[in-house]
Amino acid sequence: MNPSPWICCQLGAREHYAIPRALHQTKQLASLITDAWVSPHSRLNMLPNRLLRSLRDRYHPDLDTAHVQAFTPSLMQFELGHRLQKMTSWDQMIARNRWFQQQVLQALKQNTAQLVQGCDRPIFFTYSYAALDLLRYAKSQGWYTILGQIDPGIVEEEIVLAEQQRYPDLSPAWRPVPPSYWDAWKEECAIADQILVNSDWSKRALQQAGIDQTKLRAVPLVYSAPIEVKQFQRTYPARFSAERPLRVLFLGRVILRKGIAAVLEAAEQLRNQPIEFWIVGSSEITATAQDHPKIHWVDSVPRSETAQYYQQADVFLFPTLSDGFGLTQLEAQAWKLPLIVSQFCGTVVREGVNGKVLPEVSGGAIAEMLRSFLDCPEQLRELSQSSEQSSSFTLRSLSEQLQKLSNPLALKV
After folding, report:
1. What angle do CA 371, 390, 358 make, to 5 degrees?
2. Beta-sheet pairing, 216-218 with 339-341
3. Rounded-to-integer distance, Cα 155 and Cα 205, Å
4. What would the pLDDT profile of 244-253 be if each residue is shown by its tens digit?
């Protein structure tokens, strides 16, 4: 029997569209249904750069010949309308999830016969928090359903709540999501036949939240490095100085969950050392916390512009309190950057080989590791030279994992 076709629903450019790309390579992708798609030939590319900025990465050449359905004009209208309403971030996110499901449901109902193509039980894949109505519809059609869980769920929110109580002045505007959000998520998990998580950390967190562990399957994120990394040569000085300081890169959302409080504490402890921190990403912490002589702050940049920061850094810092995986680990590793990471994310670091794992997320632990690099830059050179991507994080590996899920013998009614 031929593998069942997949219908993938995806809000945003998560994982650089890795799952539909892997499925398309093996001719298992029936359709990718997503919120926005801006191909090189789209008329949207004629808009001023500042207007296109948020949509710049909503495309991948690997899917040029795939069936892709998107709602780009509707998305632009939605975003403009909700910005004018000045909704809270959570309200806007929940409204966007609801809008996306409405668009997808309409598309599914209109094109079901075309998408299924006579298959009795196609595989329907969609990501958490924008999935409940879609999973209900898929189940009503008798489809096999897989939920992509993007994070460790409610356990993660409990961790952030504890951090906010420790540092109330850093992010006073932070609020938990309404209880109905988690009620809907638990129903998503209950409906889905299988739940894909991206790390053992996420798997443990979902088990702790009471999610059926027999449904959980850990499949790590993957990353295809740009061709430019092959020519890139990373160098380190014999010693760091005020003229050539140790450059530490933190790239991602600047929020409590990512361990930013510990980063700020480490910067303060290393105030008198030849070191500088580059913090790149949209910030949700107070402006007063951003006034530090050792820190360079850069607002959010498109994914296509992150390479320059990876190239210029000496070490990548990822002290997250909780992450479903942390794709930036793979991006940094591709540029031969040594990694300093926490235990609460996907396992990319091999201790002492391509980076270091923090014993705890604290300013003291981060500062201690950075002091060791200041004292002995040779460590960074050795870690950089050993930084090679594991075969576990390739598109081929992901394709093999998805093919196992596509085995008709495994899809029992």
Report:
1. 25
2. unpaired
3. 6
4. 999 999 999 9
Among 129, 126, 127, residue whose Cα is nearest residue 108:
126
CA 315, CA 337: separation in Å to the nearest integer?
A: 6
Is-contact 26 14, C-beta < 8 A? no
Which pair of tokens denotes residue 318? 């990822």
Using an 8 Å Cβ cutoff, are 122 and 4 in contact? yes
The encoded tokens of residue 186 equal 């638990």
Q: Token pair 């806007």 is at which residue?
A: 92
Counting other chains too, the contacts that 115-119 makes at CB distance below 8 Å and 24 or more residues apart are 115/5, 115/7, 115/30, 115/31, 116/5, 116/30, 117/5, 117/30, 119/4, 119/5
**pLDDT tens sequence across 79-110:** 888 776 666 678 889 999 999 999 999 999 99
Q: Which residues touch 17 (CB under 8 Å, ≥6 apart)?
A: 10, 32, 34, 60, 62, 63
What are the tens digits of pLDDT across the range 343-376?
Answer: 999 999 999 899 999 999 999 999 999 999 999 9
Residue 248 bridge partners (DSSP): 277, 315
The residue behind tokens 């998408």 is 115
| Token reading at 198 | 């991206």
What counts of helices (H) and strands (E) characterise the chain?
14, 13
Residue 227, burial from CB neighbour count under 10 angstroms (0-12, 13-18, 19+):
exposed
Q: How many alpha carbons lie under 13 Å from residue 71 in its C-beta half-sphere?
A: 22
Q: Are 360 and 321 contacting, i.e. CB atoms less than 8 angstroms apart?
A: no
Determine contact, residues 382/340, Cβ cutoff 8 Å.
no
d(CA 163, CA 139): 39
Cα separation values, 40 from 9, 55, 80, 174, Å: 22, 12, 23, 38
Phi, psi of 209 (to 5 degrees): -80, 0
Task: Fill in the amino acid letter for 137.
Answer: Y
Strands 123-127 and 144-148, how do they pair? Answer: parallel
Alpha carbon distance 40, 209 (integer Å):
43
pTM equals 0.91
> Does residue 127 contact residue 10 with C-beta atoms inside 8 Å?
yes
Selection from 210, 226, 215 nearest residue 192 by Cα:
215
CA distances from residue 311 to 219, 235, 379, 398 in whole angstroms, order as listed: 28, 10, 18, 27
